[in-house]
Amino acid sequence: MIDVLSEDFEIVYSPTFIDLKEIPNVDLAIVEGGVRTKEDERLVREVRAKCRILVALGLCATHGGITSLGNILSLKSLLETEYSLTDKTKLPELEDLMYPICSFVDVDYYIPGCPPMPLLIVHTFKSIVSGKQPMRFQSVVCTECHRKIIAAKLDRLYGVYEKEADHELCLVSQGFVCLGSLTRDGCGAPCPRAGFTCFGCRGPPDSMMYRSRDMYAFLVKVIASRTSINEETIKAELYRNPFVFHTFIFSSFERAKAREKVI
Amino acid sequence: MSGKEITISPTTRIEGNGKVTIRLDESGNVTDAHFYATEVRGFEFFMRGMEADRLPFIISRICGVCSTAHITASVEAIESIYQTEITETAKRLRELLLMGQIINNHSLVTYFLTLPDFWFPLDEDPSKRNIFQIMRERPDIGKKAISLRRFGAKILEVIGKREVHVLSVIPGGLINPLKESERAVLLKEAEDSLETVKEALIMGKELFDKNWADFKKMGNYRTHYMALTKDNAIDFYSGKIRIINPEGTTLSEFTAQDYMKHVEEKISSWTFAKFAYIKALGWPEGIVQVGPTARINVNSRSTTELADKELQEFKKRFGSPAHYTILFDYARLIDLVYAVEKTIEILNRDDLTRTDTRVRVKAKAGRGIGVVEAPRGTLAHEYVLNEEGRLEQLKLIIPTQINNQAINLNVKDAATEFIHNGEIKPGLLNRIEMVIRAYDPCIKCATRTSGEKLSVEIRNRRDELLTVL
């Protein structure tokens, strides 16, 4: 990917590859990772001030990502349990929560995914360079999945290791909790194609980005219609597991922002 | 320039960001130096309560670079709790994935991160000291670097089903068998990669010879070493864990399930990265190093032809155990050769495309440990699962944590070597960063944080900040 991008861009700053310690003024900046400390916040504000176009790349930058699970536990308990000895004078102060970067700065394009597929990244940057609007993926992963959706007759849900998946049938129709029906497409559905449930790393699609949409109720309905299990049983099962929505639950931060910017 | 502190921030060309501070006395000589990790993500906290079903896939998000090692260690820990014995086919495919990761990671580190230090003279303009400048001067080398890295990624994509954060590794084996057509594609690319890696070896050794007299000054710290070993040969996936002392005598040898009896971790007030050490020896006597040099130091041979020849030459030239810090960069090339040779060996096995990649698992409660050799050294995941199949406790001991103290000591040694009377010549601070780079530290892993800042501060005795680099 670097070779493709270096055709169109002169890469001038990147702590991973280049020994420049000061951030220069640039046309385009790509930010990976979310904001966990005051130092991150300072850095992302500096980047915004020094670039013309800002792209948030990856789920941590766009939504807060998996690290946002840390928001369940308070910062205080985190420090008290493990880092009680932390010398506050030497380490940056933590933010109260893990934030996506759009909580602090305006973002021009969001490319969610953990990680986003290379094709998506290359397409977006090639479009930006040529002055075109990148093609946006607005639908759900199910549209990119080859599996056949049926209304099966099941009596319970299954864990992903509990049984081997049929290769042709929709994973939800087989009783697995696959999040493809409420996850943005553009990845090509590699996980459900391989027989592993989608876990939502592209974040919600356009239709789910209204605050009024209850993704949870939507998922219950999807599972019920594809398995014939009654909704109460599904709800009980999903409520039992707080991690089903691990990438979605914290995405409300990002849902407030313009949908048109999400690739 | 009396009594101050130098800061390098962010340290560049390593995975994740960090920071170094060097403290000078009144006459400008080094009194202390530290390598910092300055962020925290808290995986150990928020993973608690997670169902075993989701655990490996999520926990591998600790790191994008060595995600395959994490998911493998995680799945093996769960399998040891479930008492699952996976098939030989699944074992071979997992080993192949680990080789793909070594190729992917080591080609990145060798070409993109450390090569510029060997390539350019000491006083080179820092804005040119990078792979992009090398690519401009020698496009052929850039192409090789990229093709080798792509091959590693291809293995992960074909067998792991995703190039970054593979998903095929699950308790019980692998989701999908390898198809004949997939094997053929990988084999063809593997032969080309072997040629590339041979050229990389020649180039690497030449550059090493050219710089050796100068670079060996950058730390020669005698510590214990730890790595996996199988019949005295290097292994990334199976075998026992062996610890040797600085003279090369075996101190202990144990199985993965006993890992936590031998290795302990501690925290320091000034960094979010923990320190791991040998329990029996205590702190700080129990300082131990892992990674490419440790793998060679702990073992007497390699099971593949060229890698074994190179390993023997390495031992003959630098002794065993070899202690010079910069040898990590040399040993990494030998890892790379081994990984490509091993990939070809595994790909050529008749039984590799068998369809028995998965056995049924039966969930149980209990405690279990999974250990593999990650690119940066021995990696261990320990879990306690409860009756509901949820994670009750977890402990991760990560290579960069183990090397953390050695890195800090080396940073101090290097700073003492290069900074006299408060005078800092151009390029010398980069030498300090090179010491860190040799370890290929992964701060994201060591702190399980996102986007760490690594930076060097020069402070005076009154703790006044003089420069940030």
Quick structural gist:
With 263 residues, chain A is α/β, with parallel strands linked by helices. Chain A contains 9 helices and 5 strands, in the order H-E-E-H-E-H-H-E-E-H-H-H-H-H.
Polypeptide structure, described:
The complex is a heterodimer of chains A (263) and B (469). Chain A folds into 2 domains: 2-135, Rossmann fold; 141-240, no CATH class. Chain A is built from 9 helices and 5 strands. Chain A is globular. Chain A is of the alpha/beta class and 263 residues long. Chain B is of the alpha+beta class. Chain B has 14 helices and 17 strands. Chain B has helices at 43-46, 55-59, 67-82, 88-119, 131-137, 139-160, 180-215, 259-262, 292-298, 305-318, 327-347, 399-418, 428-438, 443-447; strands spanning 5-8, 19-24, 30-36, 169-170, 173-174, 224-230, 233-234, 240-244, 250-254, 263-266, 275-278, 288-289, 366-374, 377-385, 391-397, 456-459, 465-468. In chain B, strands 1, 2, 3, 16 and 17 form a 5-stranded mixed β-sheet that branches. In chain B, strands 6, 7, 8, 9 and 12 form a 5-stranded mixed β-sheet that branches. A 3-stranded antiparallel β-sheet of chain B has the order 13-14-15. In chain B, helix 3 (67-82) runs antiparallel to helix 4 and helix 4 (88-119) runs antiparallel to helix 11 (327-347). At the A-B interface, helix 1, helix 2, helix 4 and helix 6 of A face helix 1 and helix 5 of B.
